[in-house]
C-alpha cells in the first residue's frame, strides 16, 4: 500500500488537482427513488430505474466525483443478511443472490473465521482494509479526480488507492494491501480493475475471506450529484464456485467545511493491549 499510495499521490501532485467546474446538461431527469441505505436490493433497483446521469461534470465532461463520500448500512459487519447481535446492527444482504458461493472447504473456513472474528479480523490488527472493504467501512473517504488518475483517500488508518486511467498495464508480481488498480470510463460509469490484493484481508467482520487469486472489478455509476451506485464483482476461483457481486449506494457528505479526520488505528490498539496492563504509551 505504501509504495502504491505514494506513487499515485506523487503523480496526482504532478498532474495537479482538477477543481470541479460544476455545470449541468440541459435536460433535467426525475429525482431518483428513495433508497434504504442498508438494502443491497435497493441499490440494484436504483441502477435499473435511475435516469441518465444529470449531475455536475469535470472540464473533460466526466461525472464529477470529487468530494467526500460514505456508505451507510451493515456491510462492514457482514455483507450477507444477518440478525442483530451485541454491537452489530441487523442488515440485509448486499450480495447478489443473497449468499456468497463458497466452495465447501471455504465455507467451513469462513465459519471458523466467524467464531474467531474478535481476534482474527485483520482490521483489528490495523492492517489495511483491502478492496472492496475499504469502500463500506463506517468511515468516509475522499475522491480526488483528474483526467489520468484518481486518488481515493480513506479516513481509516490513512489508507489510499491510486487508480490509473492512462492505459498503463498492471504491474507484475506485486502484493499490495490495497491492490494495483487500473480504471477506465464506460460512458458515465467509472470501471476499476484491481489485482495484486494478496490474501490477508477479509470482506467484513463476519470472516468472509478470499485467497491471493482475488480480482475485483468495481463500477462507480453516479445516479445524481449526491449518490453513486457501487458494484463490485468478486472473482477468486480458489475460494468461490463462480464470480459474485456486491452492490450498494454511496452517499456524498454535504456538511459545511467537511474534511477527513485522523483515525490512527495503531494508537487505539496499543492503548488496548498495553496501557491497561501498566505499559506507557
Notable features of this structure?
5 helices, alpha+beta, 281 residues, 17% helix, single chain, 22% strand, nine-stranded mixed β-barrel, Lipocalin
Summarize the structure.
This protein is of the alpha+beta class and 281 residues long.
Report on the structure:
The protein is of the alpha+beta class. It has one domain: Lipocalin (Beta Barrel). It has five helices and nine strands. The chain has helices spanning 2-15, 40-49, 104-115, 117-120, 265-273, and strands at 67-71, 141-145, 149-154, 160-164, 180-186, 189-195, 215-224, 227-235, 244-252. Strands 1-2-3-4-5-6-7-8-9 form a nine-stranded mixed barrel. It starts with a helix and ends in an 8-residue tail after the last helix.
Amino acid at each position: 500500500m505504501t509504495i502504491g499510495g505514494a506513487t499515485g499521490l506523487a503523480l496526482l501532485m504532478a498532474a495537479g488537482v482538477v477543481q470541479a467546474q460544476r455545470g449541468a446538461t440541459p435536460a433535467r431527469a426525475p429525482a431518483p427513488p428513495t433508497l434504504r441505505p442498508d438494502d443491497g436490493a435497493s441499490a440494484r433497483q436504483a441502477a435499473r430505474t435511475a435516469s441518465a446521469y444529470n449531475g455536475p461534470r469535470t472540464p473533460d465532461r466526466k461525472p464529477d466525483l470529487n468530494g467526500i463520500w460514505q456508505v451507510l448500512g451493515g456491510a462492514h459487519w457482514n455483507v450477507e443478511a444477518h440478525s442483530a447481535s451485541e454491537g452489530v446492527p441487523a442488515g440485509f444482504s448486499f450480495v447478489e443472490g443473497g449468499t456468497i458461493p463458497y466452495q465447501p472447504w471455504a465455507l467451513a473456513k469462513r465459519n471458523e473465521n466467524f467464531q474467531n472474528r474478535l481476534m482474527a479480523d485483520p482490521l483489528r490488527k490495523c492492517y489495511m482494509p483491502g478492496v472492496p472493504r475499504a469502500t463500506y467501512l463506517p468511515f468516509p473517504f475522499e475522491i480526488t479526480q483528474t483526467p489520468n488518475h484518481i486518488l481515493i483517500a480513506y479516513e481509516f488508518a490513512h489508507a489510499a488507492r491510486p487508480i490509473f486511467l492512462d492505459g498503463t498495464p498492471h504491474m507484475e508480481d506485486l502484493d499490495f494491501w490495497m491492490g494495483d488498480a487500473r480504471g477506465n470510463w464506460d460512458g458515465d460509469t467509472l470501471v476499476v480493475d484491481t489485482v495484486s490484493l494478496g490474501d490477508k484481508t477479509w470482506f467484513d467482520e463476519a470472516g468472509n475471506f478470499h485467497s491471493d487469486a482475488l480480482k475485483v472489478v468495481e463500477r462507480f455509476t453516479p445516479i445524481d450529484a449526491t449518490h453513486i451506485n457501487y458494484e463490485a464483482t468478486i472473482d477468486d476461483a480458489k475460494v468461490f464456485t463462480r464470480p459474485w457481486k456486491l452492490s450498494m449506494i454511496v452517499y456524498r457528505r454535504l456538511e459545511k467545511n467537511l474534511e477527513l479526520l485522523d483515525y490512527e488505528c495503531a494508537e487505539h490498539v496499543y492503548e488496548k493491549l498495553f496501557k491497561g496492563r501498566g505499559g506507557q504509551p
